[in-house]
Amino acid sequence: MNFLNSTALWGGLAAVGVAVPIIIHLLHQRHRRRTDWAAMELLRRALVIRSGQIRLEDLLLLFLRCLVLALVAFALVRPTVEDKTANFLAGEQSVGMVIAIDASYSMAYGKHEKRMDAAMSRVSDILSTARASTSVTIVLLGDQPRTLLRGANYEEQRINEALKGVQPFPERLNLERSLKEVSSLIEELEASVIECYFVTDAQENDWKDLSNQAKADLDAIGEASNLFLVPVKLFDGENLAVMKFGYSSGSLGPGGTARFTTEIKNFDSQPNGGSVATLLIDGQPESAQRLGTIDAGQTKVVSFFASLDLEGKAKLSVSLSADTLKQDNFRHTVVEAQKQVRILCVDGEPATSNNENSSEIFWLAKALELKQAGGSGPVSAIRINWRDLEAETFEDFDIIALANVSKVDQVSGRLTEFVSEGGGLMIFAGDLVEAESYNNNLRGQEVNLLPGEIIEPLSFGEESSTDEATGGFWTLGPIQSGHVLARLAEKIPEEGRNSARFQRYLKVEPDANATTILSLSESSQPLLLEKRVGDGTVLMFTTTADRAWSNLAVQPLFPILMQQAVTHMTSRPGQNDFLVGDSPKLPVSGQEVGASVNLTAPDGSSRQVTLTEPNPGVAACPIEADDAGFFTVEAEDSSTIALAVNVDPGESETRGIQVADLEQVVAGSKSRIIPREAKNLVNEVKESRKGMEISRTLLMLALAIFILQGFLAKLFTNRMTSSGES
Asked: Are 293 and 378 in contact (CB under 8 A)?
């Protein structure tokens, strides 16, 4: 027997209700006063004879009245009986169902018939078992569950209207979040039979390795309802997916050529050949490549080269020729092309008048301003003495490079503001760098630019762990980071990397939120670190920008690193790339909090959005990335901001879990699996409906007993009166 209402609440009230007449009866007996008078002696003998009978009659009435209250309370608990007793007690059967439909984008898979179409056919079969009194809840599952109907009485027209036009979302299925939501929806239902249906393609990625929390929620759903897992029919066919796409290397400025790479995976069980990948810039095809044959389960990396001569945000996409799942055939990214980058190179050790290349920034400026035919490149390096740094206007520059600058006491606050608003800061070590000044002024609560704490400069051989057999110097250590600068260094042949030799470095203890991009051999100490601060980037080299501590400045790797670092800090490729379901807040410069901007979605629709303040003094546009493609933010007196939104590639693995494996996964939970090949879904549902509510029978019984006790009370009273008893 189960109960639909709280047994604790109504059971407690019943106990109180039953106790009240008993207490009144006992109190009446206790406070009865005895008064002797002459006529009483005449009645005493008759009362003694009748007292036993009266006491039995009183107790009978008391029992019947307590029974009425107990039956009413029991009826309010709404007990349900699941056996044949329910028919004998004239029970009523009420049904409440939660239908959870997988609406992740893998449900759009299929060449002729989509998985979602098969799912809706199964949903139609389930709903055909409903009656007018059936309570129906329908929820679509994706990254976030969406409830279409909540506890609504079944009306065919209303249900059909709610399900009309249901399409998969461009999202991956978040099974844990979905199970939790379904569990809460089941708790809202009150019926003698509660049913829950999961109609899904049962992807292996989602169901094979359930987390402990997901298993616990699934068990709870099975305890609270008749749980059915309804996998839909699988469709075989080719499926190529774009897993990654973005900027790889090269110049994004005018006249430069940038390399973009994409990873394309074949999820089919057969080799795939003949597909074409196309690069699009601002929606226009730029170049196309035939992919050739990609073996089953294999990933192919394809490179595109493009020259972005325009200035501002560029929207790039890669697309595949059509297959059975189009949602993962596209991927997008946003990069920023600048006409010219201005870099302030701060010389901590200026050159002597007769030796220009002794300057701390001589080789740095050479690496930044690579000469091209017809004049200078897109980078302008402005050289100043470190003593003049305080007088400079930082807003005139995109990057500030500090080379062996001794102190930063007077400019630390301005540097933080500069970086937080999107500027780039490069710090090079040197003998003049005062660790105390940097640690005290660039690491703290208000100012925190350094990627780590500066300890001290160390020379080769000063540490006991140093291996003298290496020849008196360190080289570049193994590349272990996936950072764009690390990948660039990795492309240099090992012989070329080993030609960079370091005799001295600045020992730094990296912060937890810093990234070690390159390190030194043997000691494994950081050579290049990165830290993101606000919208800007800080790069710290633990060696010098000249040849004082190493020969890096005159190696081919150095100008390549500098050029790539400039692109990384100014164009910030990939910074505005998000996944469907994210909620980014894009800073909008030149606008105040509360102002309205125009937000255009990938489908071309526009709406006004009010700017919020996620961080003090920063006006930002909140965006719900609910579709794949490009979102753009336009405001008066501000440049247009674009962001790219992509689907989660994890949903592209369309292979479904086998029924035997699924049974093993859900073993222990009270669930039934109706295989996709089964034709008897309706019969399975009807046969499982066992349980009737007997509240109405209990209330009728309580009413009958109430009438009976009233009749008996009247009868007993009349009889006592006719006998002359008071």
From this structure: no
- Given its phi and psi angles, is residue 590 left (phi above 0), alpha (psi -120 to 50 degrees) or beta? left
Location of structure tokens 């206790």: 30
Q: What is the token pair recorded at 236?
A: 């075989």
Pairing of strands 424-428, 452-459: unpaired
Mean pLDDT lowest among 73-77, 415-419, 425-429, 513-517? 73-77
Residue 353, token pair as written in the block: 């008048």
* Cβ partners under 8 Å of residue 445, min gap 6: none
pLDDT in the model for residue 375:
46
C-alpha span between 120 and 132 (Å, rounded):
20
Q: What's the angle, vertex CA 386, arms to CA 384 and CA 390, rounded to 5?
A: 95
Strands 379-385 and 341-347, by their bridges, are parallel
E strand segments, 103-192? 135-141, 146-153
Instruction: Quote the tokens at residue 695.
Output: 């509240």
- Please spell the DSSP secondary structure of 583-623, one letter per residue: --EEE-TT--TT-EEEEE-TTS-EEEEE-EEEETTEEEEE-
| Per-residue tokens: 112 | 């002729």
* β-strands 641-646, 577-579 pairing: parallel
Separation of alpha carbons 436 and 258, rounded Å: 41
- pTM above threshold 0.90: no
Instruction: For strands 612-615 and 606-610, give the pairing.
Output: unpaired
* Torsion, CA 35, CA 39, CA 45, CA 51, rounded to 10: -50
